[in-house]
Amino acid sequence: MSKKLKNNTAPQTAAVAPGGAIATDDVDAIMKKYDRESNVRIWEGKPKMVVHVIMIAFSLYTIWSTLFSTAAAQTRLATFLGMILIIGYLVYPAKKGDTRVNHLPWYDVLIMACGGFGFFYFAVNANELAKKARKLSKETFFLVIAIMSILAVVELCRRCVGLPIIIVVAAFLIYTFTNVRFGKVVSDLFYTTSGIIGSPISACEKFIVVFIIFGAFLERSGISNFFIDLANSLVGSASGGPAKVAVISSALCGMVSGSSVGNTVTTGSVTIPMMKKTGYKGEFAGAVEAAASTGGQIMPPIMGTAAFLMLDYIEGSTYGDIALRALLPAILYFAGIFIAVHLEAKKLGLEGIPKDQLPVFKVLIRKIYLLLPLVVLVGLVSTNTYSLKICASIAIVVTIVVGAFNKDNRISFSKCMDALDAGARGTISVAVACAMAGIVAGCITATGLASKLINGIIAVADGKIFIALFLTMLCCIVLGMGVPTTATYIIMASTCAPILTRPEIGVPVLAAHFFVFYFGIVADITPPVALAAYAGSAIAKAPPMMTAFNATRLAIAGFIVPYICAMNPAMLLINAAPLEIVQIVITSLIGIFGVQAGLSGYVYAKMNPLFRILIVAGGLTLMTPGLVTDLIGIVLVAGIVVYQRTKAKKVAA
């Protein structure tokens, strides 16, 4: 839900820490290379303290505003974006790798002042401007204010999110300007709720920011270390143990962090060197961490806050319903990676970590209380006891109380202030990405582009759902490149999900939202812009593209399951009887085993190409709910496994 507080010092010489883990300075250097949010200004001394206080004040204000403010929506949202501009330009320099200390150039001050003035002017005069709505597009003063503020947000987005989303927004704007009068477009995008202060930024200001702050507090409670130690104690001693530890720990940590790249680097700095030391190739080790960290975003019950966002977009759904529907796809995703690393370990003859070097489960389980904030949050949201923002606020308080009992990593007053600082920093990229999503939504509304896109895809698909899904998948992967999890889902829900829910295609609303969300997330490991995979390759010192292709293979379930969910919603346990659910779970797990076995080319012995194709085909049919497909799949998968087992025994004899 938030990134860890970025190190505010210049990177030093890379080193390897005792035990094989990558040292902090090396981690920072990798983060700066592959994660734009890590390229921050360097503040020291009194300026650093001033910035720290500003960040804390922002977080406290947003919590107060979310819980207690009665101001009009436009006033609150304009104020929120104005403050985002100020803290954003205090944090992010114009270029990556800027190591100048306490340096804030004049042009950044100018951009900050001009952009901030526009939003604060709008906030103060919101009621009066609403009365002049029809005249604003013809008055130069109001257009200049709007243009300055919009450009300031776009530039901040370039700095902290990256160019891919800017290119997408630019394409939508160019199309809009060629079809609608310039003044009206600018006026609508800035002064109405159909643009930059539309529903995406409203969701961010209303409750996402509180969840981001909650994530920052949760990280400082020591829960990440608990997850890693728990994974070590459970599977560390198994064959190829470190890779299995990476799968489990990254699933748990990634669920909370909400950042594929951030989680790849932070947990990967420990797990990737361990995997290489065990005997895995560098490109495989980096891929395991990248695929598992990316999958953390689809892991219920948190899903990087996407589970809570879906409540705003899917009418009639409850949080418990969404988390339950997401469970089987997430299990299949991580089961696929787990099976792949197990088969790879068996193929290479790898061993695990000696048990005397692992945490003792009985001792570790005494820290189970660290999970209490998550339990409280999920319980409150599931029972609709309070609104989302109040539930998150209560969870923050519970985290502070729980952290006070963790003697190994106790939450102090200083850590609370650091969490508020980190929450503010983590909000910047999400907020500007949401603002960009609002611009895209505004362009679509102004031009009627949504219906044109939908009609175009329907015409190309010609009634074939698979083609419509494939074209939508491509759109999701392009739009999701380098975008934070929450903003990714907002963009997908606004632009791509409506395509699939049209009667001509007929995908159920929930299945459509899962489809677009999953493909927006896997953009982080899909070549050519596979930032999480590239970050993993940097730690593993392996070829980036090879690591990305390995990550895509490991995460193959993330590319298959969304199609099955869309074409047969029984995979999401929709309209499925209890016995059918049991059947779907069992056959799907066997199916993902078949797919990964075929891609690995090994079960008990090396498989020839024909058997690899047949076992993959059998796995795919098992993952497609239905009695006939299940029977075909079982025959193929079981037959090949039995043959492989018999062949291995003969070789051994």
Topology:
Layout (H helix, E strand, L loop, with lengths): L23 H11 L10 H24 L4 H19 L14 H19 L1 H6 L8 H21 L2 H15 L4 H10 L7 H21 L3 H13 L5 H17 L2 H19 L3 H14 L10 H8 L5 H30 L12 H4 L7 H11 L5 H16 L9 H35 L1 H13 L3 H15 L5 H11 L1 H5 L7 H13 L9 H10 L3 H11 L2 H11 L10 H23 L8 H15 L3 H26 L1
> Whole-Å distance between the termini?
54 Å
* Rg for CA atoms: 25 Å
Tell me the helix content: over 70%
- Name the shape in a single word: globular
Q: Briefly note the structural class of the backbone.
A: mainly alpha
Number of helices: 30
Strand content: under 5%
Give the overall pLDDT as a whole number: 85
Point out poorly predicted stretches: 2-19
**Main sheet overview:** none
N-to-C order of helices and strands: HHHHHHHHHHHHHHHHHHHHHHHHHHHHHH
Q: Count of DSSP E strands? A: 0
Structure description:
The structure is a single chain. The protein has 653 residues and is mainly α. Helices cover 71% and strands 0% of the residues. It has helices at residues 24-34, 45-68, 73-91, 106-124, 126-131, 140-160, 163-177, 182-191, 199-219, 223-235, 241-257, 260-278, 282-295, 306-313, 319-348, 361-364, 372-382, 388-403, 413-447, 449-461, 465-479, 485-495, 497-501, 509-521, 531-540, 544-554, 557-567, 578-600, 609-623, 627-652. Helix 12 (260-278) runs parallel beside helix 25 and helix 21 packs across helix 24 (509-521). The longest helix is centred in the middle third of the chain and has 35 residues, at 413-447. It is globular and about 85 Å long. The termini are far apart. The model is unreliable at 2-19 (pLDDT under 50).
